[in-house]
Amino acid sequence: MKLFLSGNEAIAFGLIEAGARFIVGYPGTPSSEVIPTAMEIKKRFGIRGYFDWSVNEKVAFEEATAASYAQIGSAVVMKQVGLNVAMDPFMNTAMTGAPGGLVVVVADDPGPHSSQTEQDSRFLAFFAKIPVLEPSTPQEAYEFSKKALSLSRNFEIPVMIRSTTRVSHSREDIEVGDLADLQIEPHFVKDVDRFAATPHFRLILHKKLNEKIEKIKGLEWFSDFEEYFEGDVLIVTSGVSFAYLYDIVKDNNLENRIKLLRIKMPYPLDVEKLKKAIDKIGSKRIFVIEEGYPILEMQLKTKMPVIEGRLSGLVPNEGELTIDKIGEILSKAGILNQKSYDFVAPPFKRPSLCPGCGHRSAFFAIKQVFRNSAIYTGDIGCYTLGLNLGAVDTVHCMGASVSFAFGFDKVYSLFGKNDQIVVATIGDSTFFHSGIPALIDAVHNNSKLILVILDNTTVAMTGNQTTPANDHNQIGEETKPIEIEGVIKALGVDFLRIRDAYDMDGMIEDLKSAKDFVLNSKSPAVLIFRHPCVYSGEGLKSNVRFKDVYVDENLCTGCKVCVKQFECPSLIFDENKKKVFIDVATCIKCGQCVKSCPFDAIKVEQ
Amino acid sequence: MKLVILGVGGMGAISLSKIIAQMSIIKGLSVRSSEIHGMAKKGGLVEVQMKIGEGKSGVVLQKTADFVLVLDEAYLEYGEAFLKDKSFGLIALTGEDKRWVVENLGDVRFANALVLGKFVKQQDLFTKDDAIKVLKGFKTFEKNRIAFERGLV
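Above: the input entities. Below: the structure tokens describing the complete assembly.
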């Protein structure tokens, strides 16, 4: 059957076709589509398997490792920063190995388009001493996923599939194979020297790992290089850069100018074999062009100091290697005469919370109470955009809003500014992911931070995946909902208020009480401001909807307070009239902006 | 063929790219696309670049596209920048088209089929029947067909 699949969808098809029956992970752009696709395949083809979201990447990695210990083909899926969260089990599973096979799918985000870092996960494969395969197209993402699971099984070693945004989010016509239920049995063979190894045995495991990687280095298919075209300039490449270079050669008729040598497995790399192949080709100039860090280049440079790439300054050391960028590099090197042109950018639109988003109302209430006097620690999710309302001063990594608030509160309290208010904002899924341990620390060690949990009961930013608070998963299977307030109470938090984020007066009252509480105590105040995500079908359907929301032009003074402080994209300032109007095309008529007008000019009709 | 589709979130730019991909698959042509979504969820730019019967990546550079399909008039100038030849290949959904679709078919989303009609009319890789074959798979085939035929006129 031929399907038009994205790289991420293709990975799910490849893994399941190859026998993976346990696939878990945590959502994160650009990796989020693998698990939903696996769940849909399960439903459509009646395949038994466990495919679902975990609470975070570390937990997911451990769950998948155990499944593989029981001889079940497994995979774990995350974005590059997710792998940082899972580093501990990641390094360990490399040592113990993965008997049933374990594929580590990591989607990197060069650019970065939607991440805090621009790291190259291939380096972490190198660091952990596990093989990494690098597909350049969705078709290859499908094929390489199948190869990865079989390699992983054969050598009992985790194998990484390293994708990037342009592979994960591209589509291609792909002929997929048959998908059928498998008769498999879990079979965990106990071996404490391996699966509960003490340091002495870890040394032995490390030796075994080194032996495995040495064998894999020269393995047929994996270590084979692909050669394209017959030019005198040789470009060693891998991943999406290969696809771009291929297109550049074809589109510019450079078949007699450039020769491509494409590598499928950047680690472990058989440098001797590669050097021999390059020597045989005998090119005068050799470039290395790869997306991310110079991992091929650093390995090759030890044997071939003449190569040009990132280390020689030819290729920039940061930013995505787009097809334009590669064109520029080749032009700089005198190989291509890329016509320079003025890139026309699309009309700029500042990213903003959706019209009607409950987070906006919550941030507005927070700012009404604390103005610019508080320190605002933010977190990772849609609500990072609280930046636009001046209610986010720091954004670092998952869960850091709570620990940052702890750090700020401690130092201000200790060194003479005991009345400094610190307000942390975190989403519901991020709170489950890694906010809970930090809150335990805050309760136990007497931090008087204010924590606002912005609960929209979904992982909105990455496409509305389910959270542990939901009572069903994406394909309707029953799950046990975890009540956030239950968790908060169990941790011994003395101040807890729960409010609908559309109840502006109520939120302001709660925030004022929280302020009084923390100024007179040594423990955190937690507020849950809850409102369903209006970007989800259900959330929008159940949302408040007035017959009309409009600006009374006679009352509007053009002060722009609503535009600046409430910051809804549906509030637009008319430069000619010097009045605000409401964009009916985007407004969902929730009426939340009414409170933002100091002159009562925004009206609703019931 | 190099093609770019520009729309805003929720308008169906990706669905339209999938219809064209399906038409390509039926004809036995290779098809690749690259999707770029801005951070703005509602109303943000959705850009789909496509290559049919050529290339390894789905990426299309400015000044190289054979056709550009613009579903939102705010992106006309941006769309034009992708064209190989500025005098040919820009296919836009006009305000007039949108009104016609809403008045006659009740939902602006059928406008995609109208744009598909305009596209099919201007090029010679796909025929009218190629498009109909794919549209037939939709539950709302009849309304899509009406919109498509309107685009062909």
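Note for the figure: Residues 199-217 of chain A form the longest helix (19 residues).
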